[in-house]
Amino acid sequence: MSTITEFTKGLYKENPVFRLALGLCPTLAVSTSIENGLGMGVAALFVLLGSNIIVSLIRKAVPPKIRIPVYIVIIATFVTIAEMLMQAFSPQLYKSLGIFVPLIVVNCIILGRAEAFAGKNTVGRSILDALGMGLGFTLALVLLGFFRELLGSGKLLGIPVLGTSYQPVLLMILPPGAFLTLGLFLGFFNWLESRK
Questions:
Q1: Which of 11, 23, 132, 138 could form a disulfide with 109 if both were Cys (CB 3.0 to 4.6 A apart)?
Q2: How many CA atoms lie within 13 A of 42 on its CB side?
Q3: Per-residue pLDDT of the chain (196 residues; tens, 9 = 90+)
Q4: Domain layout of the chain by residue ranges
Q5: Do the beta carbons of residue 56 and residue 115 sit within 8 Å?
């Protein structure tokens, strides 16, 4: 597989949210706004990139019987770093994302990429995989956050864009709105795939 394909597969063909339906718990919970989606996506990208690099570097030294616990410790280390950085530089975002930042440790995207890809490939390919999958996850969160924030409040990044006469659709920023928006996107991407 070429380096370009390795990078771009996470953006569309193997997008973790829209094509593989992975990481749906944080996706549904934090995508109430663009800011939340971007914050969670960047945190997950940081953890994915760091853990993929380390797992790829030590893949031949870790005995098969203990590889999963080792991967979890590596991922937890990067999650702790991301959590501390977020607390220090963006406390409001950290508070908004809540429990979902520490739960990145058990995010199936992160652990799955460590097990299925970084544990079997070189550092270079693991970096490309992490960047592609992380950006794909971030893109999905921002896209969902865009529509949920726009329809749910009439604002984007806190700026009113639909005018004062717009009646916000409160459902969009509540959990049912998350399921509805995600379902529409999944249906759209399945429809696109069926047209090929």
A1: 23
A2: 15
A3: 678 888 888 888 889 999 988 888 889 989 999 999 999 999 999 999 999 999 999 999 989 899 999 999 999 999 999 999 999 999 999 998 888 888 888 888 898 888 888 888 899 999 999 999 999 999 999 999 999 999 998 889 888 888 888 888 889 989 999 999 999 999 999 998 888 7
A4: 3-185
A5: no
